Amino acid sequence: MSKRRVTITMSAFLVAAATLAAAAPADARPGNTHPAHTHPAGARPAKAHRAGAQPAEGLLTNVRIATQFDLSAGQLPENITLLPDGTADITFAAARQIAQLTPSGATHILATLPAPADGGVHTPALGFPLTTGIVHTPDGTTYVLYATGTPDLTGLWRLRPGTAPRRIAALPAGGLPNGLALDGRGGQLYITDSVLGTVWTVPLAGGTPTAWSTAPELASTGFLGANGAKIHDGALWVTNLDRGTLLRIPIRAGNRAGAPQVKASGLAGIDDFAFTGNGDEILAALNGPNAVVRIEPDGTSTTVLNAGDGLQNPTSIALRGDDVYVLSAAYTTATDPNLLRARLR
């Protein structure tokens, strides 16, 4: 990426970051290291988590910054997928890149997606082109979402080892494809559109997307709606950043979408998330509030990491056994995009 292109992209990014900061509630903006805990009526509140203190109830241990990225090069880590060999593939939002992290923390760029002719200034909500969701299949194929505001590039891209990335499904230029979930048994990819409030499905082979759900619970309230996505226990789970909600959408026979169920609410700035392996327990990234929370099956949430632990607008979470990976994109802090690692008790 040329220095001029980086300057243009980062200028657009800073404008978008200001929008994101303005959209966050006052108690969730950078500098506040005590995000509010949320509890459904009747639930017992957990102990508060002090900045830099031991995570609530000791859920996470050995918390450390494992890798730091280059903000000036647009290395704002947006999403992560873990490979069986110990590496991790991630997307760098503002650099339009797919990168791989080795177990030792080294970063290798696998591919850079083509820049839109207009620089991406018409990318909805953000005004700069960005790579977002990422997943992989056992054969080593990586799937990535790309939003540019242009019909020739916006969509689902596939990267196979030793080949150049290729778009295999076009998505609406007026939308912002964001979260990506893989249903390996059904051979489908599920894509959240944060601007159009839609979940799309696309076969692994690519092709024409199908609007799987346009439920009102997916819509934004002015900035970004449906966001993170995961397949779990016969359903697609989706977050809504604007509404601060976690949804469960049952996958019915014939790959039909059931009615969304709100599983947790009051989670300002919720982005992507991961299941811990303990039933429906979840770790979720709260972007603006600079926090990671544990969401229990009853919807109760407790902060387990915050800015004092090194978070810089966390965007996504992944687990390999008891190893926890948290990406921070520094969208509004504009200080230290990084990968934080921890151990799950």
Overview of the molecule:
The chain is 6% helix and 42% strand. It is built from 1 helix and 25 strands. The strands form 6 sheets. Strands 14, 15, 16, 17 and 18 form a 5-stranded antiparallel sheet that branches. Strands 1-25-24-23 form a 4-stranded antiparallel sheet, with no helix packed on it. The relative contact order is 0.17.
State the gist of this model.
This protein is mostly beta strands and 345 residues long.
Major sheet, described briefly? 5 strands, antiparallel
Radius of gyration over all CA atoms, rounded: 18 Å
Structural class: mainly beta
Q: Helices and strands, in N-to-C order?
A: HEEEEEEEEEEEEEEEEEEEEEEEEE
Which stretches of 5+ consecutive residues score pLDDT under 50?
1-12, 21-55
Tally of helical segments: 1
Distance between the termini: 41 Å
Q: In percent terms, what proportion of residues is strand?
A: 35-45%
